[in-house]
Amino acid sequence: MAKSTWKVAAPLVAVVVVGLAACGSTPKHAEMITASSGSNVPASPSIDRSKCNDKGKHVVTGDTNQDQKPDVWKFYQTTDVAGQKTEVLACKEVDLNHDGRIDLVYYYDDKGQTTTLEEADLDFDGKFDISRYYAGGKLVREELDTNFDQRPDVWKYFEDEKLVRIEQDSNADGKVDQWQYYEGGKLDRIGYDTTGSGKVDRWDRAPEGDEGGDSGGGAPPSAAAAPAPGSAAAAAGATPAPPAATTPPAPKPTTPPAATAPAPTTPPAAKPAAAPAPAAKTTTPPPAAPVATTPPAAAKATTPAAPAKK
């Protein structure tokens, strides 16, 4: 096995390649235990876990925190592509908290282009708590260990990367005893196994279904569930839409302003027309003053009446 190392320097990224003759080993990680044969859990997608085995592979390691210890391992396998030997990325492992244990693993397809499986240790105890499976680059299944016993107890299923179902083992007996079904991204119904038979014997409807007035029976909830939330969602979506579209506050306020706008403009035109009238009155008094100043009395006073009689 050929082994290379790369380091990240502070000012720049430097790649140091070192060829080693001896085979090295990577830290081991504890995978979750798959369900037993007697379980009612659907089998997980098939994954070639040998892709994370360093045997016969070119391993490139990286030191991201510059502590002289590798914390990233990339496994390359040689494949024949169009008649030429090419190294393809098969697996990548990461030590996120630099404690010497693997916390994150990626498995890749035969072309090294898309992820087929992700596994992670969320609490850094050396055991994986979650596995995510992909098909064609899309998430199809997720397994979680919520009680940290190294066994999955919650399974999530996706279609077009949308959650459609959750299965749960609530009593840690290795069997699914609760089924949650989602439609349109919302919880529609829940099935329970109360007898340990591994099958649903009781159903609960989501609040939307209860409000819709559907009477759910034991056998047909799956058939009745689809129309219930669908019709409720359609009705809910149609109800708010009309008010928003038919609300006429905008046209009503615009009509009065148009009518009142010309009204105030008419009186101002009439008021300036009345202004000339007082102007004419003010000019009349000046000629009256000179008329009053005419001295008719003076003419009478100068008439010599008395001398004529003598």
Question: What descriptors fit this protein?
Answer:
310 residues, alpha+beta, 14-stranded mixed β-sheet, 10 helices, 14 strands, 25% helix, 29% strand, disordered C terminus
Helices and strands in order, then pairings?
Elements: E1 3-8, E2 13-14, E3 58-63, E4 72-81, E5 84-94, E6 104-108, E7 115-120, E8 130-135, E9 138-144, E10 154-159, E11 162-168, E12 178-183, E13 186-192, E14 202-205, H1 207-211, H2 221-225, H3 227-238, H4 241-246, H5 251-260, H6 262-274, H7 276-283, H8 285-293, H9 296-301, H10 305-309
Parallel strand pairs: 1-3
Antiparallel strand pairs: 1-2, 3-4, 4-5, 5-6, 6-7, 7-8, 8-9, 9-10, 10-11, 11-12, 12-13, 13-14
Category by helix and strand content: alpha+beta
Order of strands, main sheet, comes to: 2-1-3-4-5-6-7-8-9-10-11-12-13-14
Describe the biggest sheet? 14 strands, mixed
Order of helices and strands: EEEEEEEEEEEEEEHHHHHHHHHH
In short:
The protein is α+β, with helices and mostly antiparallel strands and 310 residues long.
Structural account:
This protein is α+β, with helices and mostly antiparallel strands and 310 residues long. The protein has 2 domains: 1-28 and 44-148, no CATH class; 153-237, no CATH class. Helix content is 25%, strand content 29%. The chain has 10 helices and 14 strands. The chain has helices spanning 207-211, 221-225, 227-238, 241-246, 251-260, 262-274, 276-283, 285-293, 296-301, 305-309; strands spanning 3-8, 13-14, 58-63, 72-81, 84-94, 104-108, 115-120, 130-135, 138-144, 154-159, 162-168, 178-183, 186-192, 202-205. Strands 2-1-3-4-5-6-7-8-9-10-11-12-13-14 form a 14-stranded mixed sheet. It is elongated. The N and C termini lie far apart (171 Å). Residues 5-24 and 210-310 have low confidence and may be disordered.
